[in-house]
Amino acid sequence: AAEAGEGIDSHTVLYGVIGDPIRHSKSPIMLNRAFRETGINGVYTAFHITEDKLADFIAGVKAMGIRGVNVTIPHKLNIMKHLDEIDPGALAIGAVNTIVNDNGRLTGYNTDGVGYVRSLKEEAMPDISGKRVLVIGAGGAARGIVYALAGERPERITIANRTIDKAEELARSFSSRAELQAIANDRLQEACGEADLVINTTSVGMYPNVQDTPVGKGWIREGAVVSDLIYNPLVTRFLKEAEESGCRIHGGLGMFVHQGAIAFEYWTGRPAPVHAMRETVMASLK
Ligand code: ATR
Question: Which residues bind NADP(+) per the record (predicted)?
Fold first, then answer.
Protein backbone atom coordinates (compact mmCIF):
# COMPACT_ATOMS: atom_id res chain seq x y z
CA ALA A 1 0.00 0.00 0.00
CA ALA A 2 1.17 3.52 -0.78
CA GLU A 3 2.28 5.71 2.13
CA ALA A 4 0.11 8.75 2.85
CA GLY A 5 1.47 11.72 0.94
CA GLU A 6 3.65 9.54 -1.28
CA GLY A 7 4.31 11.13 -4.65
CA ILE A 8 3.01 14.55 -3.58
CA ASP A 9 5.57 17.20 -4.48
CA SER A 10 5.81 20.78 -5.67
CA HIS A 11 4.15 19.89 -9.00
CA THR A 12 1.07 18.20 -7.55
CA VAL A 13 -2.18 19.54 -9.03
CA LEU A 14 -5.15 20.08 -6.70
CA TYR A 15 -8.72 18.84 -7.11
CA GLY A 16 -11.69 18.46 -4.78
CA VAL A 17 -15.39 18.18 -4.10
CA ILE A 18 -17.57 20.76 -2.34
CA GLY A 19 -20.85 20.17 -0.55
CA ASP A 20 -22.70 20.67 2.71
CA PRO A 21 -22.55 18.06 4.25
CA ILE A 22 -19.50 16.47 2.58
CA ARG A 23 -17.77 14.10 5.03
CA HIS A 24 -19.72 11.09 3.69
CA SER A 25 -18.42 11.59 0.12
CA LYS A 26 -16.76 8.68 -1.68
CA SER A 27 -15.40 10.97 -4.40
CA PRO A 28 -11.97 11.56 -2.76
CA ILE A 29 -11.08 7.88 -2.46
CA MET A 30 -12.40 7.22 -5.98
CA LEU A 31 -10.57 10.08 -7.72
CA ASN A 32 -7.31 9.60 -5.79
CA ARG A 33 -7.36 5.96 -6.91
CA ALA A 34 -7.82 7.22 -10.49
CA PHE A 35 -4.77 9.51 -10.18
CA ARG A 36 -2.62 6.72 -8.69
CA GLU A 37 -3.77 4.26 -11.33
CA THR A 38 -2.92 6.58 -14.23
CA GLY A 39 0.27 8.01 -12.66
CA ILE A 40 -1.15 11.54 -12.78
CA ASN A 41 0.37 13.85 -10.16
CA GLY A 42 -2.87 15.05 -8.59
CA VAL A 43 -4.55 15.05 -5.20
CA TYR A 44 -8.29 15.29 -4.52
CA THR A 45 -9.85 16.31 -1.20
CA ALA A 46 -13.26 17.20 0.26
CA PHE A 47 -14.14 20.79 1.19
CA HIS A 48 -17.03 21.54 3.52
CA ILE A 49 -18.36 24.76 1.96
CA THR A 50 -21.53 26.44 3.20
CA GLU A 51 -23.71 28.57 0.92
CA ASP A 52 -22.31 31.87 2.27
CA LYS A 53 -18.74 30.77 1.44
CA LEU A 54 -19.29 29.87 -2.26
CA ALA A 55 -17.91 33.14 -3.63
CA ASP A 56 -14.82 32.92 -1.38
CA PHE A 57 -14.32 29.32 -2.45
CA ILE A 58 -14.38 30.31 -6.14
CA ALA A 59 -11.83 33.05 -5.46
CA GLY A 60 -9.69 30.41 -3.74
CA VAL A 61 -9.95 28.05 -6.73
CA LYS A 62 -8.69 30.82 -9.01
CA ALA A 63 -5.98 32.01 -6.61
CA MET A 64 -4.60 28.55 -5.88
CA GLY A 65 -5.08 27.14 -9.36
CA ILE A 66 -7.26 24.22 -8.25
CA ARG A 67 -7.72 22.42 -11.59
CA GLY A 68 -10.99 20.61 -11.01
CA VAL A 69 -13.93 20.65 -8.63
CA ASN A 70 -16.95 18.41 -8.22
CA VAL A 71 -20.05 20.07 -6.83
CA THR A 72 -22.67 18.25 -4.81
CA ILE A 73 -25.75 19.00 -2.70
CA PRO A 74 -26.81 21.76 -2.10
CA HIS A 75 -24.62 23.82 -4.50
CA LYS A 76 -25.29 22.36 -7.98
CA LEU A 77 -27.58 25.24 -8.93
CA ASN A 78 -26.15 28.17 -6.98
CA ILE A 79 -22.58 27.58 -8.16
CA MET A 80 -23.59 28.49 -11.72
CA LYS A 81 -23.63 32.27 -11.20
CA HIS A 82 -19.97 32.14 -10.07
CA LEU A 83 -18.67 30.49 -13.26
CA ASP A 84 -17.36 32.08 -16.45
CA GLU A 85 -19.01 29.61 -18.83
CA ILE A 86 -21.66 26.87 -18.62
CA ASP A 87 -21.74 23.91 -20.98
CA PRO A 88 -25.05 23.81 -22.95
CA GLY A 89 -26.08 20.47 -21.41
CA ALA A 90 -25.51 21.73 -17.87
CA LEU A 91 -27.42 24.89 -18.74
CA ALA A 92 -30.39 22.89 -20.03
CA ILE A 93 -30.36 20.66 -16.95
CA GLY A 94 -29.95 23.69 -14.70
CA ALA A 95 -27.22 22.14 -12.56
CA VAL A 96 -23.43 21.87 -12.54
CA ASN A 97 -21.55 19.01 -10.86
CA THR A 98 -18.11 19.52 -12.44
CA ILE A 99 -15.91 22.62 -12.81
CA VAL A 100 -12.85 22.81 -15.05
CA ASN A 101 -10.34 25.60 -14.34
CA ASP A 102 -8.41 26.65 -17.46
CA ASN A 103 -5.88 29.24 -16.26
CA GLY A 104 -8.47 31.02 -14.12
CA ARG A 105 -11.40 30.64 -16.50
CA LEU A 106 -14.02 28.37 -14.91
CA THR A 107 -16.42 26.24 -16.99
CA GLY A 108 -19.29 24.23 -15.51
CA TYR A 109 -20.44 20.83 -16.79
CA ASN A 110 -22.98 18.25 -15.71
CA THR A 111 -21.66 14.67 -15.89
CA ASP A 112 -24.49 13.02 -13.89
CA GLY A 113 -26.89 12.30 -16.76
CA VAL A 114 -24.22 11.30 -19.28
CA GLY A 115 -22.54 9.22 -16.56
CA TYR A 116 -25.82 7.44 -15.92
CA VAL A 117 -26.38 6.64 -19.59
CA ARG A 118 -22.80 5.38 -20.03
CA SER A 119 -23.20 3.10 -17.05
CA LEU A 120 -26.59 1.84 -18.24
CA LYS A 121 -25.27 1.07 -21.74
CA GLU A 122 -22.17 -0.66 -20.42
CA GLU A 123 -23.90 -2.73 -17.75
CA ALA A 124 -27.49 -3.41 -18.80
CA MET A 125 -28.89 -1.86 -22.00
CA PRO A 126 -26.39 -1.29 -24.85
CA ASP A 127 -28.97 0.33 -27.15
CA ILE A 128 -31.70 2.64 -25.81
CA SER A 129 -33.04 3.68 -29.22
CA GLY A 130 -36.67 2.71 -29.79
CA LYS A 131 -37.13 1.75 -26.13
CA ARG A 132 -40.08 2.78 -23.93
CA VAL A 133 -38.58 4.37 -20.83
CA LEU A 134 -40.33 5.01 -17.51
CA VAL A 135 -38.65 7.42 -15.08
CA ILE A 136 -40.02 7.46 -11.51
CA GLY A 137 -39.43 10.83 -9.82
CA ALA A 138 -38.98 14.34 -11.18
CA GLY A 139 -36.35 15.92 -8.92
CA GLY A 140 -32.82 17.09 -9.63
CA ALA A 141 -31.45 13.62 -10.38
CA ALA A 142 -34.31 12.87 -12.78
CA ARG A 143 -33.62 16.08 -14.74
CA GLY A 144 -30.06 15.12 -15.67
CA ILE A 145 -31.07 11.60 -16.57
CA VAL A 146 -34.08 12.56 -18.68
CA TYR A 147 -31.91 15.07 -20.56
CA ALA A 148 -29.26 12.45 -21.34
CA LEU A 149 -31.76 9.68 -22.17
CA ALA A 150 -33.64 12.02 -24.51
CA GLY A 151 -30.48 12.18 -26.63
CA GLU A 152 -30.53 8.38 -27.13
CA ARG A 153 -33.58 8.24 -29.44
CA PRO A 154 -35.99 6.33 -27.17
CA GLU A 155 -39.52 5.70 -28.49
CA ARG A 156 -40.79 7.72 -25.54
CA ILE A 157 -39.96 8.71 -21.98
CA THR A 158 -42.76 8.66 -19.41
CA ILE A 159 -42.13 10.55 -16.17
CA ALA A 160 -44.18 9.49 -13.13
CA ASN A 161 -44.15 11.61 -9.99
CA ARG A 162 -46.06 11.93 -6.72
CA THR A 163 -46.42 15.64 -7.51
CA ILE A 164 -47.58 15.62 -11.14
CA ASP A 165 -46.81 19.32 -11.70
CA LYS A 166 -43.10 18.57 -11.38
CA ALA A 167 -43.33 15.69 -13.86
CA GLU A 168 -45.16 17.96 -16.32
CA GLU A 169 -42.58 20.69 -15.96
CA LEU A 170 -39.74 18.24 -16.56
CA ALA A 171 -41.48 16.75 -19.60
CA ARG A 172 -42.01 20.26 -21.03
CA SER A 173 -38.36 21.28 -20.56
CA PHE A 174 -37.01 18.59 -22.88
CA SER A 175 -39.97 18.04 -25.22
CA SER A 176 -37.91 19.21 -28.20
CA ARG A 177 -35.40 16.38 -27.69
CA ALA A 178 -37.74 13.37 -27.39
CA GLU A 179 -41.34 12.19 -26.99
CA LEU A 180 -42.04 12.96 -23.32
CA GLN A 181 -45.12 12.27 -21.22
CA ALA A 182 -45.96 13.05 -17.58
CA ILE A 183 -48.22 10.93 -15.39
CA ALA A 184 -49.26 10.86 -11.74
CA ASN A 185 -48.32 7.92 -9.55
CA ASP A 186 -51.88 6.49 -9.77
CA ARG A 187 -51.03 5.40 -13.34
CA LEU A 188 -47.68 3.93 -12.36
CA GLN A 189 -48.74 0.27 -12.44
CA GLU A 190 -50.10 0.58 -15.99
CA ALA A 191 -46.93 2.43 -17.10
CA CYS A 192 -44.69 -0.22 -15.54
CA GLY A 193 -46.42 -2.90 -17.60
CA GLU A 194 -45.60 -1.08 -20.85
CA ALA A 195 -41.97 -0.12 -20.21
CA ASP A 196 -38.73 -1.67 -21.54
CA LEU A 197 -36.70 0.30 -18.98
CA VAL A 198 -37.89 1.46 -15.53
CA ILE A 199 -35.68 3.83 -13.52
CA ASN A 200 -36.13 4.85 -9.88
CA THR A 201 -34.68 8.33 -9.36
CA THR A 202 -36.43 8.93 -6.00
CA SER A 203 -34.92 8.27 -2.58
CA VAL A 204 -37.57 5.60 -1.88
CA GLY A 205 -35.71 2.48 -0.67
CA MET A 206 -32.51 4.27 0.31
CA TYR A 207 -30.76 3.32 3.56
CA PRO A 208 -32.10 3.24 6.25
CA ASN A 209 -35.57 2.83 4.64
CA VAL A 210 -34.56 -0.37 2.86
CA GLN A 211 -38.06 -1.91 3.13
CA ASP A 212 -39.60 0.80 0.91
CA THR A 213 -40.07 0.42 -2.85
CA PRO A 214 -41.65 2.77 -5.43
CA VAL A 215 -43.60 0.02 -7.30
CA GLY A 216 -45.64 -3.08 -6.53
CA LYS A 217 -44.19 -6.57 -6.93
CA GLY A 218 -44.81 -8.00 -10.38
CA TRP A 219 -45.81 -4.67 -11.99
CA ILE A 220 -42.81 -4.65 -14.34
CA ARG A 221 -42.81 -7.20 -17.15
CA GLU A 222 -40.31 -10.01 -17.48
CA GLY A 223 -37.31 -9.12 -19.62
CA ALA A 224 -37.43 -5.38 -18.89
CA VAL A 225 -34.36 -3.57 -17.59
CA VAL A 226 -34.87 -2.14 -14.10
CA SER A 227 -32.53 0.52 -12.80
CA ASP A 228 -32.12 2.32 -9.46
CA LEU A 229 -29.95 5.38 -8.81
CA ILE A 230 -29.59 4.35 -5.16
CA TYR A 231 -26.29 2.61 -4.32
CA ASN A 232 -26.77 2.30 -0.58
CA PRO A 233 -27.88 -0.47 -0.44
CA LEU A 234 -26.23 -1.75 -3.65
CA VAL A 235 -29.35 -3.86 -4.32
CA THR A 236 -32.58 -2.17 -3.21
CA ARG A 237 -35.88 -3.95 -2.59
CA PHE A 238 -37.05 -2.47 -5.94
CA LEU A 239 -34.19 -4.24 -7.75
CA LYS A 240 -34.46 -7.48 -5.75
CA GLU A 241 -38.16 -7.89 -6.60
CA ALA A 242 -37.55 -6.98 -10.25
CA GLU A 243 -34.85 -9.64 -10.49
CA GLU A 244 -37.28 -12.17 -9.02
CA SER A 245 -39.73 -11.21 -11.81
CA GLY A 246 -37.13 -12.02 -14.48
CA CYS A 247 -35.91 -8.45 -15.11
CA ARG A 248 -32.33 -7.42 -15.75
CA ILE A 249 -31.19 -5.09 -12.95
CA HIS A 250 -28.83 -2.11 -12.87
CA GLY A 251 -27.78 -0.47 -9.58
CA GLY A 252 -26.72 3.11 -8.87
CA LEU A 253 -23.01 2.58 -8.25
CA GLY A 254 -22.17 2.72 -11.96
CA MET A 255 -23.68 6.19 -12.31
CA PHE A 256 -21.57 7.47 -9.43
CA VAL A 257 -18.42 5.92 -10.90
CA HIS A 258 -19.08 7.21 -14.42
CA GLN A 259 -19.99 10.77 -13.38
CA GLY A 260 -16.57 10.85 -11.68
CA ALA A 261 -14.89 9.20 -14.66
CA ILE A 262 -16.23 11.82 -17.09
CA ALA A 263 -15.11 14.61 -14.74
CA PHE A 264 -11.63 13.01 -14.66
CA GLU A 265 -11.61 12.99 -18.47
CA TYR A 266 -12.55 16.70 -18.65
CA TRP A 267 -9.75 17.58 -16.22
CA THR A 268 -6.94 15.38 -17.54
CA GLY A 269 -7.85 14.62 -21.17
CA ARG A 270 -7.15 10.95 -20.40
CA PRO A 271 -9.52 7.95 -20.25
CA ALA A 272 -10.53 7.18 -16.67
CA PRO A 273 -9.60 3.85 -15.05
CA VAL A 274 -13.26 3.01 -14.50
CA HIS A 275 -12.71 -0.53 -13.24
CA ALA A 276 -10.24 0.52 -10.53
CA MET A 277 -12.49 3.41 -9.50
CA ARG A 278 -15.48 1.10 -9.07
CA GLU A 279 -13.38 -1.42 -7.14
CA THR A 280 -12.26 1.27 -4.67
CA VAL A 281 -15.78 2.54 -4.01
CA MET A 282 -17.13 -1.04 -3.68
CA ALA A 283 -14.44 -1.89 -1.12
CA SER A 284 -15.29 1.20 0.93
CA LEU A 285 -18.99 0.25 1.04
CA LYS A 286 -18.33 -3.12 2.69
P1 ATR B 1 -32.88 14.42 -6.10
O2 ATR B 1 -31.95 15.54 -6.33
O3 ATR B 1 -32.25 13.21 -5.44
O4 ATR B 1 -33.64 14.05 -7.31
P5 ATR B 1 -35.19 15.88 -5.13
O6 ATR B 1 -34.92 16.93 -6.16
O7 ATR B 1 -35.55 16.28 -3.75
O8 ATR B 1 -33.92 14.91 -4.97
O9 ATR B 1 -36.32 14.90 -5.72
C10 ATR B 1 -36.84 13.84 -5.00
C11 ATR B 1 -37.80 13.03 -5.87
O12 ATR B 1 -38.21 11.87 -5.16
C13 ATR B 1 -39.08 13.78 -6.23
O14 ATR B 1 -39.55 13.32 -7.47
C15 ATR B 1 -40.02 13.34 -5.09
O16 ATR B 1 -41.40 13.45 -5.39
P17 ATR B 1 -42.17 14.86 -5.22
O18 ATR B 1 -41.77 15.72 -6.39
O19 ATR B 1 -43.60 14.52 -5.27
O20 ATR B 1 -41.73 15.43 -3.90
C21 ATR B 1 -39.63 11.90 -4.97
N22 ATR B 1 -39.91 11.32 -3.65
C23 ATR B 1 -39.21 11.49 -2.51
N24 ATR B 1 -39.75 10.80 -1.50
C25 ATR B 1 -40.85 10.17 -2.01
C26 ATR B 1 -41.84 9.29 -1.48
N27 ATR B 1 -41.81 8.90 -0.19
N28 ATR B 1 -42.78 8.82 -2.31
C29 ATR B 1 -42.82 9.19 -3.61
N30 ATR B 1 -41.92 10.01 -4.16
C31 ATR B 1 -40.95 10.50 -3.39
Answer: 137-141, 161-166, 229, 252
CATH number of the domain at 62, please: 3.40.50.10860
Give CA 68 to chain center in angstroms.
Answer: 17
Give the pLDDT score at 3.
73
- Residue 55 inside a domain? The answer is yes
In a domain, 236, yes or no: yes
Tell the residue nearest (CA) to atom 2 of ligand 1. 140
The verdict on whether omega for the bond into residue 21 sits within 30 degrees of 0, i.e. cis, is yes
Tell me whether residue 230 is in a domain.
yes
Ligand 1 within 6 A of CB of 142: yes
Q: Tell me if 3 is assigned to some domain.
A: no
Q: Are residues 201 and 104 in the same domain?
A: no
Q: Is the CB of 209 under 6 A from ligand 1?
A: no
User: Which residue puts its alpha carbon closest to atom 21 of ligand 1?
Assistant: 202
Give the pLDDT confidence of 67-110 residue by residue, as tens digits. Answer: 999 999 999 999 999 999 999 999 999 999 999 999 999 999 99
- Say what the pTM is: 0.96
- Here the ipTM equals 0.97
Determine if ligand 1 sits within 6 Å of the CB of residue 202.
yes
* Structural domain of 31: 13-110+255-285
Q: Is 62 a catalytic residue?
A: no
* pLDDT tens-digit readout, 228-265: 999 999 999 999 999 999 999 999 999 999 999 999 99
